[in-house]
Amino acid sequence: MLAVSDLKIHYRTLAGSVKALDGVSFAVGDGEIMGLAGESGCGKSTLGKALIRLEERMMFVGGQVALDGERLPIADDRAMNPYRFRKVSIVPQYAMSALNPTRRIGRMIDELLAARGLKGSTLRPELERRLAILGLTPDVLGMYPIELSGGMKQRVVMVLSTLLDPSLLIADEVTSALDVASQKKVAGALVEFRDRGYVKSMIVVTHDLAILAQIADSILIMYAGKLAEKAPTRTIVEAPAHPYTRLLLGSLPEVGIRFEEKRLPGIKGRPPSLLSPPVGCRFRDRCPLAFGKCVEEPPFIEIAAGHQVACWKADAHAQG
Amino acid sequence: MLKVENVSKVFRSGAFGGKKAKVIHDVDFEVKPGEVVSLIGESGSGKTTVGRMILRLTSVSGGRITFEDEDISTLRGAGLKSYYRRVQGVFQDPFSSFNPIFKVGRVFRTIRREFLGDLDAAAWEARLTGALNAVGLEVAALDKFPHQMSGGQLQRLLIARALVLDIRLLIADEIISMLDASTRIDVLNLLGDLKRQGLSIIFVTHDLALGNYISDRIIILQKGAIVEMGTTDRVFGDPQHPYTRSLLDAVPHLHERWSDAELKDLGLVADTARFGGHLIEHRKDHLVRVYS
């Protein structure tokens, strides 16, 4: 169980601080796969990364993160170390570059485990068993990364990241660089590992809502450093309440939709700069429903069980 | 208009080019005026190589490519320049297509110098404004640096750069893969509008949904060979080749969830590529590769 409250992370830049994550609160339950979606620059990757390691440019401004009731010291790089890999783990976006190209995969894994004070040989049977679950033979351990396809590498990294049964796994755009067939396998692997209890909760960060519709239990939509909407997957897909979620879903061409027959609208305009974000609702400038009250910031409130939205018109919307 | 006739490509590698790898096998298709044709395939299918051969960025090893009945491999000097006035490409990463040190307008000045030097200032301005309007941008956008613009805007600028010339054919190689969903659709709609005005487009992508949205005809490539080709309705509505079917099955849909069994079918990705065989006409406007 992960609980994040009022988390604020800014980036240091020459022009000032970029408020990439501006007070977000949410929880991920045990056994839950939460999808985290939004457009580039909305803060979704920042959120994912902040939960495991703050990059040098990232500045912890405030908030709290608790994992299984224990407070995670995310602002303190060294104090976080005992939690990484054991409690919180990540599958990075480019698994291709996460593997050392000069080492055979088995040896690289042994070295990594040794660096954490663990013995490769004792974990080897479990490692091979988990590789087999994902359709990989133990032969891959004797291979160099270059001998594997992108999807295979992604799965190897997944097995490695979850080898110590972490409580929380962050999967950062793990399917984005893959072809449809490998994408499906990696998505299936995430669900399989959750079902087997290797990982308690999962945050799947992606811009691809269609893949989240397949594997996520709930979806959290972010916009310009703030939370826009969180709900069970079906609700987000079938009955979204935030105008941004609706427009985002409406701009997805699905197989079967043709330009000639149905021109999809897209969303006009661009997200605001996070150097000095506007007061009030940040989606206001692009929103077709914006009215006077939107200059005040809408609270992120529950409009139905498990369905939270930050929009002044959400209530009326959900009913009508 | 464009005819790709039995084109193949062999890459040589090794110290003296001793090793050969045939990456394109007898690809044969045609693009008519005002037609959008999607080249769809996974990584390594050769879709980008085909696009590059049409743009003459990669040479052809066998077969030939003709544009308006002219063999493009023989073009030199003025002939080649005239070819590039009619055929242009836009590629995947808009950020690396611009020099970050210069304002984006420089790309247009280069085009003018190279291709349209004989145009007077007023005529050039009119042409430039027309091209920018067509992609929904203001002339003021030219005074910005690449980092001040979004990926979608940069990609539209690159399309405008092609439109400044009298292009008849645009090769769009994964031009929206790096863009966000909301800007993606803007660029796709723009391509649709341009097609209505008579532009032919070869849309190279690995995303079947995007190919479906925009195309008149679909070409499915696997390991450098065409396995299925036909009108969009036929190929997506009634796929014949097992590879096309497996691709379509793997596309995630918003409103329809994969069953547990489907999702957890984690066996090794079967290598279904089979070489040889030949394309037969399954129905009108629908070719499928069969193996004897």
From TrEMBL, chain A:
Q: Where does the protein end up? A: Cell inner membrane
> What is the protein name for this chain?
Dipeptide/oligopeptide/nickel ABC transporter ATP-binding protein
- Enumerate the InterPro entries for this protein: AAA+_ATPase, ABC_transporter-like_ATP-bd, ABC_transporter-like_CS, Oligopep_ABC_C, P-loop_NTPase
The membrane-topology field of this record reads: Peripheral membrane protein
Please give a single GO biological process term from the UniProt record.
peptide transport
Quote the Gene3D superfamilies the UniProt record gives.
P-loop containing nucleotide triphosphate hydrolases
Source domain of life: Bacteria
- One GO CC term of this entry? plasma membrane
Keywords tagged on the record: ATP-binding, Nucleotide-binding, Transport
Q: What's the family?
A: Belongs to the ABC transporter superfamily.
- Which residues belong to any copy of the ABC transporter domain? 4-249
Task: Report the GO molecular function annotations.
Answer: ATP binding; ATP hydrolysis activity
From TrEMBL, chain B:
Q: Which InterPro entries match?
A: AAA+_ATPase, ABC_transporter-like_ATP-bd, ABC_transporter-like_CS, Oligopep_ABC_C, P-loop_NTPase
Question: Organism's domain of life?
Answer: Bacteria
Keyword Nucleotide-binding included in the entry's annotation: yes
**Keyword ATP-binding carried by entry:** yes
Report the residue ranges that make up the ABC transporter domain in this protein: 2-248
Molecular function per GO:
ATP binding; ATP hydrolysis activity
Q: Which SUPFAM superfamilies match?
A: P-loop containing nucleoside triphosphate hydrolases
Cellular component (GO) terms are: plasma membrane
Topology of the protein relative to the lipid bilayer:
Peripheral membrane protein
Keywords, A to Z, come to:
ATP-binding, Nucleotide-binding, Transport
Annotated GO biological process: peptide transport
Compartments (UniProt record): Cell inner membrane
**Recorded family membership:** Belongs to the ABC transporter superfamily.
Protein name per its UniProtKB record:
Oligopeptide ABC transporter ATP-binding protein
- Species per Swiss-Prot/TrEMBL record: Pleomorphomonas carboxyditropha
